[in-house]
């Protein structure tokens, strides 16, 4: 047993920090949360954090990536269904994480290093899921071989980020409209 | 003549403030520019500013709206050409104003009142131009009557904002790809 002064055991420190990051960044926005705030909230020492993450940015991105990872990426069925189902889950998720993600995107505009991490660790892995759905549909000839997967991905991610940044709702109805508009591209 | 202590004549104060706002916000980002900075840069008194604009936000939005207004909204020709031409001009414009606009979008995430002004005075008027192109094309039956103009507009604006916020390039090639992908929706 390595309990220290009421701190969570070391193997609980990672989850405690991830959950502190989710909570505080959702409440205050990325820029208003310091490393010290995270340590206090998680009841964890500085060394414990830095053994796991090189910086606040990496910890926070992992905290929200983890949440996004819970979206079931079920690939069975026609691409229209696959994509609508995925976006419907994603949008439900974004309604919860939206304020935090908006603050991450805002912070990334004034911090090139954070933007790079945000792109690489958060946005690109999500874009890859959508692209892989589309590429599989092209492979099984459900979508035309000239289907522009990259632009479609930009339109999908762009459309929901734009709506989210403007404070407009993301719901199942928009998931259906967006999927329909993007996939008709191939008819 | 109403020259006062080397200040520009009053009828030059508006343009001087607009140009100061463009310059300073482009250099420093919206949040790092104060009203006092704008007055100093334009060589204009506080009252002169407030006779024209109720706040920094309104002045800055006008400064960049003015620039966007210079894009020729030529409506002759097939919708594919009209939209490609418009987006090509817009993207060239965004390559110059991009850093400032990214800072406006970032600031809007932490300031609900500014977000409302940014939507109403800046984003919606631009969206209207694109929507009117599409609506006209639907009217003259160049686009199917079921064409989803609102979602198409979200995809267009979303895609280029998303690319811009991620620091990715906007060029004529992307204008063509985006227009092609959005308009194929109707075939």
From TrEMBL, chains A, B:
Keywords recorded for this protein, A-Z: DNA-binding, Transcription, Transcription regulation
PROSITE patterns with a match to the protein in the record: HTH_TETR_2
Stored PANTHER family: HTH-TYPE TRANSCRIPTIONAL REGULATOR RUTR (PTHR30055), TETR-FAMILY TRANSCRIPTIONAL REGULATOR (PTHR30055:SF148)
Gene3D superfamilies per record: Homeodomain-like, Tetracycline Repressor, domain 2
Record's keyword annotation contains Cell inner membrane: no
Domain HTH tetR-type: 11-71
Keyword DNA-binding: yes
Annotated protein name in UniProt: HTH tetR-type domain-containing protein
Annotated signal sequence range: none
Pfam family, one: TetR_N
DNA-binding stretch(es), residue numbering of this chain: 34-53
């Amino acid at each position: 047993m390595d309990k220290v002064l009421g701190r969570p055991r070391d193997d609980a420190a990672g989850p405690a920090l991830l959950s502190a990051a989710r909570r505080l960044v959702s409440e205050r926005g990325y820029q208003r949360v310091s490393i010290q705030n995270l340590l206090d909230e998680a009841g964890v020492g500085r060394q414990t954090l830095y053994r796991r993450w090189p910086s606040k940015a990496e910890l926070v991105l992992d905290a929200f990536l983890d949440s996004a990872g819970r979206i079931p990426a079920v690939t069975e069925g026609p691409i229209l269904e696959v994509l609508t189902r995925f976006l419907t889950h994603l949008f439900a998720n974004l309604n919860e994480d939206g304020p935090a993600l908006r603050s991450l995107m805002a912070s990334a505009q004034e911090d090139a290093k954070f933007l790079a991490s945000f792109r690489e660790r958060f946005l690109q892995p999500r874009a890859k899921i959508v692209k892989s759905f589309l590429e599989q549909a092209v492979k099984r000839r459900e979508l035309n071989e000239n289907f522009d997967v990259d632009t479609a991905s930009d339109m999908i991610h762009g459309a929901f980020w734009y709506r989210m940044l403007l404070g407009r709702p993301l719901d199942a109805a928009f998931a259906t409209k967006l999927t329909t508009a993007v996939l008709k591209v191939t008819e």
